[in-house]
Amino acid sequence: MNQELLSGGSGSRAAQQQQQQQQRPPAQPEPHSHHVNLEGHQPREPRPRRRRERGGGEEEQEEEDEEEEEREHPLEGEEGEEEGEEAEEPWPSRRNQSPGENEGAEEGRRRREEMNGEEKGAQWMWEQEQRQRRNRRRRNDEEEEEEEEENNNSGGEGHVGVPHLRTEEESGRPEEEEDGEREVEEEMDQESDEFEQSEDSGKEDEEEEEDEEGAGDGLHSPSLRTNVLDPNDNTDHPSGRQNQSSSSSHPTHLQMKRKLDHGPEVRPFPSGKKPCPSPTGLVPYPSTPTTFGDLRAANGQGQQRRRITSIQPPTGLQEWLRTFQSWSGPEKLLALDELIDSCEPTQVKHMMQVIEPQFQRDFISLLPKELALYVLSFLEPKDLLQAAQTCRYWRILAEDNLLWREKCREEGIDEPLHGKRRKVVKPGFSHSPWKSAYIRQHRIDTNWRRGDLKSPKVLKGHDDHVITCLQFCGNRIVSGSDDNTLKVWSAVTGKCLRTLVGHTGGVWSSQMRDNIIISGSTDRTLKVWNAETGDCIHTLYGHTSTVRCMHLHEKRVVSGSRDATLRVWDIETGQCLHVLMGHVAAVRCVQYDGRRVVSGAYDFMVKVWDPETETCLHTLQGHTNRVYSLQFDGIHVVSGSLDTSIRVWDVETGNCIHTLTGHQSLTSGMELKDNILVSGNADSTVKIWDIKTGQCLQTLQGPHKHQSAVTCLQFNKNFVITSSDDGTVKLWDLRTGEFIRNLVTLESGGSGGVVWRIRASNTKLVCAVGSRNGTEETKLLVLDFDVDMK
């Protein structure tokens, strides 16, 4: 126990206290009361002071003498100070007493020396209350306006590091509101925990152990998991105290108020407002030297750390502390260095838990809301979720809808998640739909990576024929086959909704948008279907050979045929708008963005067309074999050929920007998004390229690579999904190129089982599988990775 905290202070304080006591009405004393009552004790009539008034110089000299006496006799100094307010002192004084009273005082002194930690804490709390009362009276005239504002805006948020304690008023809240608040807290814990699943488990255990120890001490570790004051708490304000109406039979309630004290110059602030620091800062520094305990008391944290009450104070503790206080500043530092060196790590950790909170500042709550949100915008989403658990005000900031909208846009999430209406826990607090969308997407990504692979839905159809084309949009799947039909399936139930019959040859190409399906066949026609009814709306005649490829954009579709021509059709009227002629071999692939048409053919050429004028703007020459695949983003044309190379072209100038080499065979499939190109090759490898620089970023290979030709691929911002003739569908990490896991593995893989086509949405994967030798039945497999956001 710090003896300076037990000392009574200077003579000037005693003089001020006597003047203040003379203004108070006398009350009946409460003799022989050894019960520690911090609010319910009755003041006694003040006794005359021992010294008489002197001149200014003599009084200053007397103050210096008394201060010197206090340093030599700290306990006597304490009693001398309290003479001015003897009526409110719950411990008997030693001065101006009769011999019988001196014997009782001596016995009381021995009792105080033998007090346990809890009794010392009560005496310390009483002395702290006296100091705070004196400070409040001194500032009363200067803070009248602030007192009015405080009365109008009572309640509010507290600072980080002040534990949340329930008051009597709060305990009377409806159970439904309390249950809702607990539900939100549990939900935020769950959200934060989900973002920590991929971190090292050992690190998590260590952090949890630190949090538990910090909670046991009533202190806060560097973790963000802290609480704040409830807005309805009735705490002491710097310019006006709470009405002290509670009786002496409620010491627990009194202790709550002491713990929730913000300090002399820091007041609580209402929800959405920030505390107004004093001109000298958050922590007031009195003109006289203070101890660390005084500074903690000024911050309202004097009673927050755990007092060790399980053992009696060691013999000689008070003498040891007095000896330490008698040393000079450098001697104290030297002694502390030696003391720390002789401590065990657990003891040093205890010191850190006591000291560190005094140097922590909640700068976020001190900033205007706009600046605070700007600072939080630099945090990663998982850090935002942890910050939301710091305190109630941080939770409100971290739930900002615009903040989470930007986080969602960074992740490519375009729509907020409007779930069922939730119960309002606190006025002014609302759940962010954008945050809910982000949480949902994170859970979906986690399911793709390591969620349990449930048994897929099996959609059997097309008998033993080959599925040549596959479309997937919303909850509708369309498969085309060389059995001359297309089938429409429900991705939810797995049922075949209808079979589109009308072609007289195998279906080799298809496109779908909303309720419209377009198919191309070896019967040299295109058909436009209504997906809802299964009716054929139009049959488009014009090509003289198989319609091998097509691309739909809004109301127009461009088809490429083995007759070496391309045709532009209006799907609403069924009319052929334009015919593009120029290739001298079968057109194998086509792309259309509404402005330009790009086609690749077996004549080794890539052509850029203006469909409105039916003119060829550029013929892109460079490949030395058939062109099998194309990608076009409006600026760049990327072509893949049987000559093993991939070429990147400028669509405006027709110049070849890059030639991407590295594959060993036919590039059968490609996909381009935001200058990132993923190519699949018959050499069983998949490569990731940056078309701006022409560099190969990753090659998806290694011990888990495909064992046969890659048949199809698709990628998003996180994953690459690939299928192969080896009967597997694999998931890869786009950024690192690492293999994650197999999503599909056919039992007949390697002996004839093939995955021909794949199509994936955000939550589902559709695979068209079969075989050429009858070892695998033709069917569709639907895997679901969605989550249930309750």
TrEMBL record:
<dbReference type="GO" id="GO:0031642">
    <property type="term" value="P:negative regulation of myelination"/>
</dbReference>
<feature type="region of interest" description="Disordered">
    <location>
        <begin position="1"/>
        <end position="306"/>
    </location>
</feature>
<dbReference type="GO" id="GO:0005737">
    <property type="term" value="C:cytoplasm"/>
</dbReference>
<keyword id="KW-0853">WD repeat</keyword>
<dbReference type="GO" id="GO:2000060">
    <property type="term" value="P:positive regulation of ubiquitin-dependent protein catabolic process"/>
</dbReference>
<feature type="repeat" description="WD">
    <location>
        <begin position="620"/>
        <end position="659"/>
    </location>
</feature>
<dbReference type="GO" id="GO:1901800">
    <property type="term" value="P:positive regulation of proteasomal protein catabolic process"/>
</dbReference>
<dbReference type="GO" id="GO:0045746">
    <property type="term" value="P:negative regulation of Notch signaling pathway"/>
</dbReference>
<feature type="repeat" description="WD">
    <location>
        <begin position="500"/>
        <end position="539"/>
    </location>
</feature>
<dbReference type="InterPro" id="IPR036047">
    <property type="entry name" value="F-box-like_dom_sf"/>
</dbReference>
<dbReference type="InterPro" id="IPR015943">
    <property type="entry name" value="WD40/YVTN_repeat-like_dom_sf"/>
</dbReference>
<dbReference type="GO" id="GO:0043130">
    <property type="term" value="F:ubiquitin binding"/>
</dbReference>
<keyword id="KW-0597">Phosphoprotein</keyword>
<keyword id="KW-0539">Nucleus</keyword>
<dbReference type="Pfam" id="PF00400">
    <property type="entry name" value="WD40"/>
</dbReference>
<dbReference type="InterPro" id="IPR001810">
    <property type="entry name" value="F-box_dom"/>
</dbReference>
<dbReference type="InterPro" id="IPR036322">
    <property type="entry name" value="WD40_repeat_dom_sf"/>
</dbReference>
<feature type="compositionally biased region" description="Low complexity">
    <location>
        <begin position="12"/>
        <end position="25"/>
    </location>
</feature>
<dbReference type="GO" id="GO:0042752">
    <property type="term" value="P:regulation of circadian rhythm"/>
</dbReference>
<dbReference type="InterPro" id="IPR020472">
    <property type="entry name" value="WD40_PAC1"/>
</dbReference>
<feature type="repeat" description="WD">
    <location>
        <begin position="660"/>
        <end position="699"/>
    </location>
</feature>
<dbReference type="GO" id="GO:1903378">
    <property type="term" value="P:positive regulation of oxidative stress-induced neuron intrinsic apoptotic signaling pathway"/>
</dbReference>
<keyword id="KW-0833">Ubl conjugation pathway</keyword>
<dbReference type="GO" id="GO:0031146">
    <property type="term" value="P:SCF-dependent proteasomal ubiquitin-dependent protein catabolic process"/>
</dbReference>
<dbReference type="GO" id="GO:2001205">
    <property type="term" value="P:negative regulation of osteoclast development"/>
</dbReference>
<dbReference type="Pfam" id="PF12937">
    <property type="entry name" value="F-box-like"/>
</dbReference>
<feature type="compositionally biased region" description="Acidic residues">
    <location>
        <begin position="77"/>
        <end position="89"/>
    </location>
</feature>
<dbReference type="GO" id="GO:0005634">
    <property type="term" value="C:nucleus"/>
</dbReference>
<comment type="pathway">
    <text>Protein modification; protein ubiquitination.</text>
</comment>
<dbReference type="GO" id="GO:0001525">
    <property type="term" value="P:angiogenesis"/>
</dbReference>
<feature type="compositionally biased region" description="Basic and acidic residues">
    <location>
        <begin position="165"/>
        <end position="174"/>
    </location>
</feature>
<feature type="repeat" description="WD">
    <location>
        <begin position="540"/>
        <end position="579"/>
    </location>
</feature>
<feature type="compositionally biased region" description="Basic and acidic residues">
    <location>
        <begin position="106"/>
        <end position="121"/>
    </location>
</feature>
<feature type="repeat" description="WD">
    <location>
        <begin position="474"/>
        <end position="499"/>
    </location>
</feature>
<feature type="repeat" description="WD">
    <location>
        <begin position="580"/>
        <end position="619"/>
    </location>
</feature>
<keyword id="KW-0677">Repeat</keyword>
<feature type="compositionally biased region" description="Acidic residues">
    <location>
        <begin position="142"/>
        <end position="151"/>
    </location>
</feature>
<dbReference type="InterPro" id="IPR001680">
    <property type="entry name" value="WD40_rpt"/>
</dbReference>
<dbReference type="InterPro" id="IPR019775">
    <property type="entry name" value="WD40_repeat_CS"/>
</dbReference>
<feature type="compositionally biased region" description="Basic and acidic residues">
    <location>
        <begin position="31"/>
        <end position="46"/>
    </location>
</feature>
<dbReference type="GO" id="GO:0032006">
    <property type="term" value="P:regulation of TOR signaling"/>
</dbReference>
<feature type="compositionally biased region" description="Acidic residues">
    <location>
        <begin position="175"/>
        <end position="215"/>
    </location>
</feature>
